[in-house]
Amino acid sequence: MELSSRQEQILTIVKENAPITGEHIAEKLSLTRATLRPDLAILTMSGYLDARPRVGYFYTGKSNTQILSDKVKTITVDHYKSRPVVVNESSSVYEAITTMFLEDVGTLFVVDKLATLSGVVSRKDLLRASLGQQSLETIPVGVIMTRMPNITVCHGDDFIIDIAKKLITKQIDGLPIVKKVTHGSGYEVTGRITKTNITSLLVDLANNESI
Ligand code: ADP
Question: Do 189 and 105 fall into the same domain?
């Protein structure tokens, strides 16, 4: 995060005088407390300063990298998800390929008759099936998919950094975001998180967007 020159001045004052109240920082800069309030809020929210009620401001001593890394660790899947693209187990491989093109995704989630997650079909699964002798219109995706319980899933409140690690260790492109079904067992698919979502997060961090 780029700090303004006033914010840099505040940091210097706090480093030298901590703990120091907002009032005293304002005095040193010949400004009013009200004028400083937004800067102090930004410095506190972004992790440079610590504010203790009735004591004053402290310098946290965190580097920019530490502040960024603390920030990244708080971001959940719900902030960066996409909508899921789902096909039925009984859909043919041909239909799955068409859906993948029309919906412009690389992974399809497969559901059973009760709309609970039963598997995942990726580009390579479909390519592999296309190499076989059978007609693509007659093979159901249920036959070629990776199936439950071997599906790696995640929840909306999971931290995105943990999902990024899973994508790397499992060598997959995406995960279904799921919720337990209220009646019976299994998962309902509520979203999708992929390497593309994680790339968007990286771009937002670099552009210093508020996340
Ligand atoms: P691609 O096939 O395009 O390389 P992936 O790397 O995502 O795409 O998929 C590799 C294999 O892992 C495929 O067989 C796919 O069915 C399976 N797979 C994909 N996502 C998951 C997941 N979330 N859980 C378990 N297996 C998955």
Answer: yes
The tens digit of pLDDT for each residue in 34-68 reads 999 999 999 998 889 999 998 999 999 888 888 88
Could you give the number of structural domains in the chain? 2
- The CB of 169 under 6 Å from ligand 1? The reply is no
Residues 60 and 90 reside in one and the same domain: no
For the entire predicted model, the pTM comes to 0.82
Q: Which atom number of ligand 1 is nearest to the Cα of residue 121?
A: 16
CB contact set of 209 (below 8 Å; sequence gap of 6+): none
* Boundary of a domain, candidates 39, 70, 101: 70
CATH for 124:
3.10.580.10
Question: If we measure between CA atoms, which residue out of 131, 102, 129, 123 comes closest to residue 173?
Answer: 123
Question: How far is residue 94's CA from residue 121's CA, in Å, rounded to a whole number?
Answer: 12
The closest-lying atom of ligand 1 relative to the alpha carbon of residue 146 is 16
- Asked if residue 107 has its Cβ within 6 Å of ligand 1, the reply is yes
User: Mutual orientation of helices 5-17 and 33-45 as an angle, nearest 10°?
Assistant: 80
